[in-house]
Amino acid sequence: MNTDKDDYHLSFFRPTTPQAKANRNLALVLISIWAVAVFGFQILLRVVEKPVPEPVLTEFEQLLPSVSQGIATETELRSYTLNCLTVLSKVFVAPTEKEVLQNAFSASFFQLLNEEQKTDYLSKISSFQVLQAEIKDIRDQNYIAERDKLNQEAAQILGLSSTDVRSLMIAFSLKPEFTNPASAEDFEVIHNAMKKYTTHNQSFLTDWNFIGFPFHYFYTAVFLLVLFVFLCWLYCVRTDANHKLLSVNENM
Prior knowledge:
By secondary structure, the protein is mainly α. It has helices at about 20-50, 55-70, 75-90, 95-110, 115-135, 140-160, 170-175, 185-200, 205, 215-245; strands spanning about 50-55, 200, 210, 215. A hairpin with a 2-residue loop joins strand 3 (about 210) and strand 4.
């Protein structure tokens, strides 16, 4: 008996039997298919994508010159205020950029008010902030009532319907310390923040719908999962075929 032979020493990268070589080659082919399907699609997305602004950014950039020069009409100022609120209503905005946008939103909102309204709102907002700092449960009924009242009154001034989700953010976005118009430097920062959150990379791969889903979502969430299962099944089938071809008896 030859005791120098180690029948239990296996290496995926340096197979020593025809069976092991066949399994290795098959695995490498299937892994390559999977890698191309996953990373190749992501590379293709990056190659064909182009930055596309949301309509809110296009409108904002049209309004910015007149607002920054202080010659905007009431209608233009209201639209500009709503543009800022639109971005503030997004799920995530970086704290520093949120403060800049809150500044822009608050300053333009207060410009829409007469002196009596401005004094009234400054008092209401300050009272709401005190209440907000004191509550221990956001389900506090007094807190909810004051928040909703402030939102509804401000929404009427801005021309927002009660079903517009942006109206829910007004009480949290108005800051009484931001009542003065922004400086030229501030407008540049505001513009950069608007572009950051309202410009998205798009292409025919993201715009094309496939059985009700954007194609890039269907591809990554559904097709790649199905492909992975198919490759696993194919590996099993081809392995059995190779074993038969090489006369491998697994029952020994």
